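Researcher: Going back to the complex we discussed earlier. I've cleaned up the inputs and rechecked each line, so this should be the final set. Can you rerun the prediction on the complete assembly and write out the structure?
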Amino acid sequence: MVNLIWLGMIVLSFIAAAATGRMDELTKAAFDGAQTGVTVCFGLISVLVFWMGLMRIAEDAGLLGKLAALLGPAVRRLFPDVPKDHPAIGYIMSNMSANLLGLGNAATPMGIKAMQELQKLNPDPKTATPAMCTLLAINTSSITLVPTTLIAIRMNFGSANPAEIVGTTIAATAIATGAALLADRWYRSRALRPPHRSDPPAGLPRTTRAGRSRRPAEEPLPPAAGGSGRPPHAEGG
Amino acid sequence: MYALVTTLSAWMIPAMIAFIPLYAAYRKVPVYETFVEGAKDGFGTAVGLIPHLVGMITAISMFRASGAMDLMLAAVKPLFERLGVPSEVVPLGLLRPITGAGSLAYTTDLIKTYGPDSMIGRIASTIQGSTDTTLYVLTVYFGAVGIRRTRYALKVGLFSDLVGFVAAIAVCMIVFG
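Model: Rerun complete. Updated structure for the full complex:
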């Protein structure tokens, strides 16, 4: 689906630019966009380097494990296939709390660390696991208690009550997060079910087209067919 | 509530920066060496994200500059007008999932033009605050660990953006309407 959206944006841009005679702008936009991408990454370097250093201290001191044990039960229900007290749960907790408090520049490094920990549990490193999809769902709907940037902007333009949107934002974000989690659950349960007989077996043109991954493509992930909730490669900690 | 949370936010990071090394030192962790060791990963992760972000932001930038986005918006605007929703906020629904900076700029512009306490200003603020930039989050989080097959993650993200957009409009029209 990412491939489709990416291609769609580029092709539609080309057609629209051709129709409206904005080819020069399109070329400029392409290279400006590329430059923005690099700039954004450079901006991320300082934040990532700093937080990953600090979080490594927290991990080595056993703080993340403590956090996971303390606040984990609720989060573990969202991530049934991550082993209990795995550092990933600690990072997920840190990521969610940072999001909640609106600490955007701390939330991203912790989310990335959580992804890297989840990747260690992943039997197929090129394919997202259900736990990764859940983490992403939580982050794309962004549970924030106080949208600080917005309040600052509203103050700036002379709002009589800059914080009046806090309530509506929490309501909307709760609905969006709820919808994301429900959709995630639905897809997750579908992904765990055995494949239908009518699905084309691996090796038919539809799947070989991918050609990048050497393993038989489109194979459902093995984890957690049942209650144990642990992927086969996950043990060791 | 608002004051409490903003105070908490202001204290949170300094408190963490002080508390984590202190606790680690108590647990006999060599704090500085550990910091440097962990920080090394940060650089590689950030640099590794460059191809992902360049690819995505280039496409988004082209999409906006070519006028393709305006055409799509023109197509859906009449629908919203029939529902009584101020059509000025419609572009946000499309901008929000694809570009954080772009949608923030658009929100700021709406607040400036129509006033922060207008219905448009309130709806725009709520939309901007209630969801995150799905394409960016997906690119960064999956890019950082080299996930190629994202499975249903994007569908879930875009679905929740849509729900959040509709919910923001509905909640604002009920609360402030």
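Model: Worth noting: The radius of gyration of chain B is 21 Å.
Researcher: Good, that matches what I expected from the previous run.
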